[in-house]
Design a protein that fits this description.
heterodimer; A: mainly beta; 7-stranded mixed β-sheet; 4-stranded antiparallel β-sheet; 54% strand; globular; B: mainly beta; 11 strands
């Protein structure tokens, strides 16, 4: 299994530009999570999906952030317009169906730098 | 009060010693508890989970849970330099769906 795939691995952009981060979950996993990690705030959940449906987006910092999951094998996180304070590592994770102590598998992350 | 609290460290222990990592949580409805390890520049990886009070052992790792005290810990016996990483505690309340709430992490340094 290829694991969770994220692209790009690194992104450098200027303030005000649109940024799109991509994630392909592990096949068969029906839950997908987007996290942001910074030194100051640690690992924060932004939004998660069950069966392609957004369940909890309370962690999305503001309207500049949006996420979609058009099908079971693809999700995007978009920031428009981007700001320097959005600089962070963004992780996507997926997990197996149902409740229980199911492990979340993390992708390698996208390191975003907004100048 | 943060939902999940950990000492940020760094915690420094000599090789071969026991490293003790601690975590407290505020949501009494939390039902599952996880320890993730994150090497610098890498993504978090699960090393243990526990959901019953008491101890759970896996090789050199022991997770301890005390729900009454809202406390979970991770012990690493015979610490190795390769254990040097940040350890993240996470909790899950099934009534709030499948999301994990993570602590800030404790940086562990094992000195040869």
């Amino acid at each position: 299994d290829a694991g969770v795939i994220q692209s790009p691995r690194h992104e450098v952009t200027e303030m005000g530009q649109e940024v799109t981060l991509r994630c392909k979950p592990i096949s068969g996993h029906n839950s997908l999570f987007w996290y942001r990690q910074t030194m100051m705030r640690g690992l924060e959940l932004l939004i998660y999906f069950n069966n392609n449906v957004p369940i909890d987006d309370s962690g999305m910092p503001e309207d500049r952030f949006s996420a979609k999951m058009p099908n079971a094998s693809f999700s995007t996180l978009k920031i428009q317009p981007s700001e320097p304070r959005d600089s962070a590592v963004y992780f996507c994770a997926s997990s197996s169906p149902g409740q229980g102590a199911y492990e979340q598998y993390f992708g390698p992350g996208t390191r975003l730098t907004v100048t | 009060q943060k939902e999940v609290e950990q000492n940020s460290g760094p915690l420094s222990v000599p090789e071969g010693a026991i490293a003790s990592l601690n975590c407290t949580y505020s949501d009494r409805g939390s039902q599952s508890f996880f320890w993730y390890r994150q090497y610098s520049g890498k993504s978090p990886e699960l090393i243990m989970f526990i959901y019953s009070n008491g101890d759970k052992e896996d090789g050199r790792f022991t997770a301890q849970l005390n729900k009454a005290s809202q406390y979970v810990s991770l012990l690493i016996r015979d610490s190795q330099p390769s254990d040097s990483a940040t350890y993240l505690c996470a909790v899950k309340n099934y009534n709030q769906g499948g999301k994990l709430i993570f602590g800030q992490g404790t940086e562990l340094s094992v000195k040869p």
